[in-house]
């Protein structure tokens, strides 16, 4: 059995779709999977059970990336073609069954919209597939001894989502008073822009572990899984932390937690005061974030 799974360009949306993919693996354990996604999310699927191929969709003018996908898939007869991006591509492929998720934004959790395709209640939680090599590297970066490691994610793909970086120093001071043995780890994505956003926090916390920029997505997930807590902006990294099973506190301002709250076994969020979707994230105080983080630490204490 061969399944074509067309998922998101953005990392956060791709992570949210992994629960649905895990459901398909469970009900079709011998299936071979082809994943179509954007370049940022491609590494997320490298350890997927039954993976046959990852097709990287690079956006092209006049939507020609969809033509590229059709060309890459037309030679195969599919048993199931599942399109989470609402395109017409699967109508022009040979497939026994097709399922298409309506495109565009709409109210409610994205995770619930995905689950509705298979009428699943509750929705399957996002997951991440790790290799032994990923876990080995993670153990070298995030130590098991010496106290808990708390992950901080100060970056995002839009400046409006970024909690002011200068607030991480007083936040950490508050957390360190309550958890003297704790050590921070700073997570961020590849590229100069991500590094520049994370650098002020790295410089402000000289004992921090530099856990960004040079790692694959599954390596990052394996490192996050070893952390006691993740605190960070609404971003793909936030969703990856929740999927890895890390207690996760998402920070929201002008983005909507009602649509993109982190989803995992122990995930929550805090939003700046004001109308949802319009509140400046700078309105989120250090005291409020400290309180939410402390509560989550207490609730998930082993």
From TrEMBL:
GO molecular function, one term: ADP-heptose-lipopolysaccharide heptosyltransferase activity
One GO cellular component term noted in the UniProt record for this chain: cytosol
Source taxon at top rank: Bacteria
Pfam families found in the cross-reference section: Glyco_transf_9 (PF01075)
Keyword tags: Glycosyltransferase, Transferase
GO BP terms, alphabetized: lipopolysaccharide core region biosynthetic process
UniProt xrefs under PANTHER family: TETRAACYLDISACCHARIDE 4'-KINASE-RELATED (PTHR30160)
Name of this chain's protein: Glycosyl transferase
Organism: Acetobacter persici
